[in-house]
Specification:
The chain is mainly α and 185 residues long. Helix content is 72%, strand content 0%. It has 2 domains: 87 residues, Rna Polymerase Sigma Factor, Chain: A (Orthogonal Bundle); 80 residues, Winged helix-like DNA-binding domain superfamily/Winged helix DNA-binding domain (Arc Repressor Mutant, subunit A). InterPro entries: RNA_pol_sigma-70-like (IPR039425), RNA_pol_sigma-70_dom (IPR014284), RNA_pol_sigma70_r2 (IPR007627), RNA_pol_sigma70_r4_t2 (IPR013249), RNA_pol_sigma_r2 (IPR013325), RNA_pol_sigma_r3/r4-like (IPR013324), WH-like_DNA-bd_sf (IPR036388). Belongs to the sigma-70 factor family. ECF subfamily.
Length: 185
Amino acid sequence: MLNPTSSGATIDHSAALAGCASGNAAALRHIYEAEAPAMLGVAMRIVRRRDLAEEVVHDAFVQIWRKADQFDPALGSGRSWMFAIVRNRALNLIRDRSREELTDDATLEGLAEIGDHDDLIQRLGQSEALRVCLERLERPRRASLVLAYAGGFSHGEIAGRLGVPLGTVKAWIRRSLLSLRECMA
């Protein structure tokens, strides 16, 4: 939770960023004390949830600390640079969250019922080519494919179920379909 010790403190942002670039943790603390409340306000206006806004501000300060050496005073003020980081982090969070497909409890129960995707494969006959080809796939790739096509679940739901990033699920499904196509040919 954000609780700066002194709000409204005035600082030389460029000098404080130079201090951060040289590893001076006190410089980051001064920036935090002076700007965290305003940064939280900017993040709140974008993400509309305090917990997410706090996460945005935290991530922004980590990035400010790590990338302070990239700040160029010739391109603008230090304060503008830092607030651009907050804004971009908030927009990225919104964009990432919009890609997640939220599910209701009934859908999650349905996922639990299909939980053992190997049961679905066992229902195929022993000699069926599809079964043979599916069994050649690595277990997580096979699971993502079966959940998508036999279970009818979205990539986002599968990512949540398997605990992997959305991009990983998409790649697994795409590559698994290519492998199945080759195997079945």
